Structure formats: C-alpha cells, structure tokens
Description:
heterodimer, A: mainly alpha, two-stranded antiparallel sheet, 12 helices, B: alpha+beta, 5-stranded mixed β-sheet, 5-stranded antiparallel β-sheet, 21 strands, globular
Amino acid sequence: MSNEAVAVVPRKTRGPWAVALTKLTRDRAAMTSLVVFLLIVLACFSAPLYAKWAGVDPFASTLDAVIQVDGADVPVMEQSTEGLGLGYTPIGPTWQLGNYFLGADSQGRDVMARLLYGGLSSLLISGAATIFTLILGTAAGLIAGYFGGITDTVLSRFLDVLWAFPIYLLAISLSIVTIAQGISIGPIEIQSGSLWLPVIIIGIVYVPYVARPIRGQVLSLRHSEFVMAAINLGVPGSRILWRDILPNITTTLIVFVPLMMALNMLTESALSFLSIGVQPPAASWGTIIQDGQALLYTRPLVALVPGLAIAVSVMALNVFGDGLRDALDPRSKVRLGRD
Amino acid sequence: MKKLLLAASAAALLAGAWLAPAQAEYLKEHRGGTIRLLARSAAGTLDPHINYTDQGWQMYQPIYDGLVAFRKAEGMDGFSVVADLAEALPTLSNDGKTLTFKLRKGIKFSDGKDLGVKDVVASFQRIFKVSGPTSGTFYAGIVGADKCLADTKSCTLDGGVVGDEATGTITINLTKPDAEILYKLALPHAVVLPADTPAEDMGSKPIPSTGAYMISAFDPNKGMTVTRNPNFKQWSEEAQPDGYPDVVQYDFGLSEEAAVTAIQNGEADWMFDALPSDRLGELGSKSMDQLHISPLSAWWYAPLNNRLAPFDNEKARQAVAYAIDRNTLVKLFGGKVLASPVCQVLPPDFPGHEDYCPYTKNPGAKWSAPDLDKAKQLVEESGTKGQKVTIIVEDTAISRSIGVYLQSVLTSIGYVADVKPISSNIQFTYIQNTNNKVQMSVTQWYKDYPAASDFLNILFSCASFREGSDASINIAGFCDKDIDAKMQKALDLGVTDQKAADKLWAEIDRQVTDKAPAVGLFTPKRLDFVSKRVGNFKFNPQFNWMITQSWVQ
C-alpha cells in the first residue's frame, strides 16, 4: 500500500452572486429583455441631442412651421382644402430621421423628439419612484418586522389602510389634491408641475407592496439562530438590522427593482394620460398618448408609438425581473454546467 | 320699453300670419317618425327651474312654456320675446315696475290638468324654493325676492307675483324697472309648472309640461324619450309651434367618435357634443350637406387675475393681449370657418357690439396680427419680467392645446409659465375661487339672453366678484368704480331707450377691453352634424337647433 499522500486540492466554490450572475447571463429571454430595455434607455437619454440635431423644440407650439419633404415645402399643420375646409391635420410620418420622423402632434411638435423626451421623463420618474418605494418600504418592513409589538401593529395597520385603497384611485386622488398647489410640509416644498410630485405619489402608493413581504421575511429572520445569538450578545438592534438582516433581504430587494419599475412606469403613464402626472408642455409617454387620442382617426401613430414604447419597456422589465428572480433563487432549477 | 313691447307684438302678429300656411302644409307631409339624438352624457337634473346647461335648455324648448318665450325663429328674430302662456306681452304701469299678464285659457298640462293662475304664482315661488341658480340674480328684482332668498322654504313672493283667478291675470311687481325682465322671464328657469310640483330638485323625475312634447321616460345613464303631449293644441306658432317627429329619442353614453360614425351610418340623427377635431376634415369634405355652421353669442377668453402678480399690473395684462396670435387659436379650434379672432368682450352681432381691437399690429376695428415687440416692451415697463405664471385650463383636447400655446406665448415675452389642465367638472368653479390663487385661465362664456349686460355686467362688475367663493363669476377680480357706475347707468337707460343704452354698452366694452382684465381669444361657431334624413334644419340664436322643427320623414 502506498503511503503517498493524496494532495487534496480544495475545489474552488463560487459565491452566490457569481452563481446568480452566471444563471442570469444564461437566461436568454432575460438578457434579451435587458438589452432591449438598455437600448430604450440609451435612446431616451439621447433626447436632447436628437432635438438639437433635428433643430426642433419639442415643447413649443409650432403650428405655422413649414418643413422640407422630398424637396417640397410642407406645412406642419395641413388645412383641409376640400369642401368646407374644416380643421387642420398634423403632418404624418416622413420616415426621415431628424425631420418629423413620426410626424407632428396637434401643436405641430415633432412626435419623435417628444417620444424620446417622454421616455426620459417616464424612465426618470419610474426609476426615482422605485428607489423611493424601496427605501420607504424596506424601512417600514424592517422596523415592523424586527421591533414587533406596538410598532409593528401601528405600521402594519397603516400599511393595511394604504393597501385597502385601489392603487389608481389613491394615486389619482393624491395627484388631484397636489396638482395645482404642489406640496408644502414644513421645510419641504415641491412646486406644482415638478416631476418630484409624481415620483412621491407613485412612490407612496406602492410602499405596502414592498413593505409587507419584507416584513414577513424580517419576522422569520428575527427568530433565526444567528439573530437571536446577536441579540443575546447585546448587539444593538440597529446594528443587527444593518449588518445581519438587511443583507439577507437584498436579493428580494433586487428582484423588486425591475418589477416595481415596470409597475411605476405604468402608473406614471396612466396618471399623465389623465393629466395628473407630468404636466404640459413637458412630455411623458402618457401625455403623448393623451395628445394622440384626439388624432386617433387621422394620425393614429401619435398615440400608438408611445403605447408601444410603454408595452415594450414594461414587458422587458418584467421578463428581466423574472430572470433575475430565478437567478437569485437558490432553489431555481436553471442548469449551471459544472455546478 | 313700452315702444319696444308694442313693436314686438306687431312683429309677432305679422310673423305668425306669414308663417302659418307653410307650417301647416309641411306638417301634413312630414309629421311623424322618431328623431334620434346622441350625447356623451345627460345634462343633469330634468328640473327646468334648476338645470342651467345649453343641452337642457335646448331640449326644454318644445316641452315647457313660460309667460313669454323667445321666438322660435332663425336669425336675429330668434332673439325677440313673444307672448307664450300669456295672451300678449305684458302691460306696464307704475313707471315700468309693474307687469301685468293675462293668462291664455284652455291650456292643459301633459297630465291633463288645466293650467291656471295658481300654477304661475306657485312656479315663481318655486324658483326660490328650489334655490334656482339664477334666483339671486335674474329674479332678485321681484318684490319679496329678498325674503325668499333669505328663507327659501317659506317663500311667498308676497306682493311680488300676484295672481287673480277671476280675471286670469298675473301681476309681477319689481323693486325697480328692469329693461331685461322679459328676457329673464323667457328663460327655462321661469317656465310654468303644475302648482303641486314638489319644491325640491326633481332630478330624474319628469315634470308635466304644457308644450308640444313631454318627457315620458328618463334614465340619466341611458337616455330620454320625449313624446307628443296628448293635450297640446298649438296656440302660438312663434312661441310654441307643433313639431314634426312623434318621438325624440335622446341616447347618452356614446363617445363623440362613435356618435359621428352612428350619424354617418344613419343610426342616429344628431349629436350634442362638439365634433372630434380629427374628423372635421373628412366631414367637411365628404358630408358637407349634413353640416350646419351657425354663429354663437359666445366668448372664449383668458381671465387674468387683476389681484395677483403679475397681472395686477395693467401693462402686464395688455402685454399678454398684444402677444397672443388669435389666428393660431382659431387654427387650434378648427379654422376660420369655425371661429373668428376677437379682442373685445361683446361678440359680433350682439347688442352693443361695435368692432374694436387695440391689441393688434395695426390697432383699429379688427385684429390683424400679434405685436410681440410691443408686448415685450410692456412686460419690461411693468417690471414683471421673469415672474412665474400658471395657466389653468380644462382637461379637454382644445382647452389643453390653447393652454400649451398660451404657455409658449408667455414664455416668449419673458414669463416663466406653466399650464395645468384640470377636470372639466371642477375647472370652472376652481378658477372662480380666489383661495386657489389662479393667475390666468382659459374659459368660455355663452350668453343667457341677448343683452350686453349679460357679458359686461356679469363678468366684470364689482358685484360679480366674491372673495373665496366658487360662484365669483368675475374671475379676473376686476372692479372699476367708474365703469361700474356706467354699467348701472346703461342698465337704467335700457328701460327707456335701448338704442342709447347699447351705445353706452359699446363704450363700456371699449373701456373694459382697454383695461384688459381678460384677453379675448375668439368667437366660436356651432357646428351641427345631422343625418341625411333630417330636413328643415333651423337654428335659433338663443337655444340653438330647434330639434322638433326638423323632420325625419
């Protein structure tokens, strides 16, 4: 029998984040969705450049503008020349980038430029509202779940009340109340017309969606052995929350990001469509659909294109969110080669 | 005023004699059928003493009657008042403060009950008992109205409206002569209802009527059916003519787009709501014969809050008036066929109107082009440059687009402007309430009756401004004591010399326009789209299309 020692090379194990990343990158649907969404984001952030290049002001009425199409001068708003000569129709798509590519709206504004600016507003609002919701929801869930007792009762009942309202009804009510006068609470003053108004309103109405599952997770973590040990060792509650509990709910929060962003984007569009979100002349996909509603018969693209943009963005975020959830879920059945 | 009444009576007789054979002949040929109307929604309560909408007032014309009525005629004739339930226009006494009417005999309500003096007296009391929207304005000059306004439930109008059953006369006593009282009595708020009508808003419950038609079914979410009044016998063709269709079916709930399609397909005959702007071109070219364009005594305007910066400065207000391109607004409204640019308050062809426009490139009678240089200069002189202005508009396609355009105009002359569309249901009351600190808004005013005071006195008198109230129709908060005194003088002068009064109103119109408490935008026109089978379309300037004077077979 040989006495040779068998060298045991410890197998290099990969961390959970690396595993999740691998899983995610192998999920074709999720990655395609991510690419689509990033392209939309890139396009929307290029809105100021596009408007400058096209030489258009997407916010000012340009009813008397005349553009060149195939060498001919064409008014942006075309008056009917037949019969009684009633009404003006905005120019349709020219399919020439930088030259009213998607045509004009009822104010003679370049729809393509407004579409990009609208996307920028929609993305910024939904992104900021997502951060706002996650911060508030996480804080509420952590405090309620960890401290329990009266704190939990008060916070949970408050969330129940918020939860009891139909989301859109609550968002519409808050928007109507704040739309004309803005918000003024002590030193905090937000003027009417500010993009922060829809951010805060949307952020608030979705807090229970995040807070409740977080609270549930924290409740279960609160009674886990490592937390009990920390408590018995006299570690302060804030430190336990920050160092022991928060890291354990990070994956849930990450999964929430794309899903909440998709929800927020839909809500923002709905509010703007109802004139209680982004205020004219600023654009959001919702306001462009609203503008296009009056042109459905003659210029359907004005409403259809932003609708399509919302649908694609929301779908991309949802599919990516699903992929992210699968990737971060240790019970996920996605095959990972040698793992 | 006596002269005016005599002339009106003579004209009424002549018109009646001339019209009678033609109508009788046509009635035989075209009588019958169902005319089908569409609207997005009902006009609110069915109660004619309360309903204060164009839609409601138009529908009441063939249904209810007052002592007097606006003549059911086209053109300026439609602005004249004729006797309706009264045998003739009233005799005046007591320096014009007492009006005496003699009630016609033999008229029955649709429920079979006879019309009597008691019904007339009870109806006037009811205007106050139900707190009618114009009880404190149009009818506040009746003796005893002050007590009725203070205590509505026990209103008797003691000494104000006195009936004599024996002679069939009704006497109305006023606290002071009122040149416009006949107009006010010809409005639906003063129609005669059965004396036993409950003194409360009847909501969806039809009230028996004296007119050619009666409301036989109403569901605010579905529609209204109006059928012939079995007890109606025509007594005055010019006040309450018999109608052509047997039934008027008014359906609610269809969108404007769907309503247009229904009319095109012959499934409906007319729609109340404005035609969708993206269908105008198509309809104007393919369905010209089915379109009727009629002038309206109305004003689209932008009230500027005279009590809030920056528009508490006259030069700032004038700057806005100079800067606005009315042609652009006309374009937004559908083009020159549907609207005309204006600078002044009184609409064209309205009593007291004399063309006047100081806020244009070449000041004179008509608006020609904006003067941006002058506007910028005035903003500089006013010291208001850079101030923030919020424009409150209705959340409708046209109002929103006007708001967006005005925002760009204000920005171009040096203000930091934004625009807020708010629901049409609340915008009109919102902009009236000073608590909301509205700086600028976009709204419309449609005449109640054809008198200059209905625009100038109502919209710009000191009395029309009420701090912190939702009913402060002087939205601009304009109050000029000299102009106020002149308006009172014109009202008084109208009792004896209407022409002189109208001259004075024209002067007041110029003075108000010069002060620019609001910026006149344009005068709209009414565009009616009817089905191919609708014949004899007639437009009354007071209450719009006379529905039952058209035939469908």
